[in-house]
What we know:
Belongs to the bacterial histone-like protein family. By secondary structure, this protein is mainly alpha-helical. Helices cover about 60% and strands about 10% of the residues.
Amino acid sequence: MSKFSLNTLGKLLADKSGLSQVEAELFIRKMFDVCNQGLDADKQVKIKWLGTFKVQATKDRESINVNTGERFTIEGRDKLTFTPDNILKEIVNKPFAQFETVVVNDGVDFDEIDEKFGEEQTEDAPEQVIDFLDEEKTATPNPEVVVIESEKEKEDEQAKQIAIEQAKLERLKQAQLEQERIQKEKQEQERLEQERLEQEKLELAQQQQALKAVVEPAVPASDESEEEEEEEEEESSNSHHIVIPRYLVVAVCLIVVALIGGMGWFAFNYGQMTAQRDHLAMQLNQYHQAPAKKVPAKPAAAPLSQEQKLRQKAMEDSIRMAKTAEAVKLAENSDEESANAEKAKQAEAKAKAEAKDKAEEKAASKIASSQYDKDARVRTGAYRIIGVAQTVTVGAGQTLEQISTRYLGSGMECYVEALNGTSTVKAGQKIKIPKLELKKKKK
């Protein structure tokens, strides 16, 4: 399995996202620092679209040395596991989608395959060159000869093989456990989906039964049906109660009300049509009977032909239409006469109100003029006061004479004095300007 250093990951991230090499490496360091903090605190870190890192603690376990037969204890440790996200899993497994899963039996040796791939990796791996800065200065140490006994080498090799086999067994067990977990999840999903479908079918059947129970009319039951109903009630008491949705009840009630309203409207219109038809038939009978009294009896006429019957029917229709038009015209004329009478009444009332207002205005003007006639200048003047024309505010430095000259003309201050009852004014005072009317000359 190939391993990537921080520089390699930073270069890949920089090429992908457009960042610089330094920024990419800082981001990767920060991400792994945050992951380590989360693992220390919660023992689990989940990264969206990447996967879940989880710390699992392994207990101490005993093992036996194959050569000496001695027991030794392998200390417990924390094992870091990674479960990829579904999106990452699909991306990684996409090139191998055409492969089929093959179950491998226990005891299969993978040493030859591992050695083969190990040799290929060593051939492809670049040679690492290590530069020593102080190579010239430092003296080359004399090589020490280390004698290793063949037995110790064998023990080390056997221990390595045991460790490799144990690692393989653990990988196989983990793969089997993962496969079992996936199968259990699939079975659980299938079971939940089946339960959901059954629940939907049950709800649909209950709604259909409720709809049938509401729409179907009740039928009087005989003795046999009563016994069947009792049996059904006993069965239904043992089963669950059916709940009818509220919107279904409301919809059925609206349909019933609409049907009843439609039947009532049809019956009402049908009654009116029948009454109108009877009335027209009675008018036709009266019309035929009226000339029959004046005309003497004639011998029985021969049976009418089809053309004569059509002519007679057309004549009757025209007479009926003429009478209807005449009745409508009379009704319109009566409406126009009533409207004209109403307009005449309104005009008369308006004229009376205007005359009354004029009389009141004249009386008020006479009373007002009689009040202001106490002043000799107003009494002997050419005008009389009939009301107030407007109200003005006295400005700074203005006199009553100036105000009267501005609004009425020169020599008219006597009328302003008589209306306001004063001959002196102050700034800011409200002054009424009189409304004058020329006195009529006496003949």
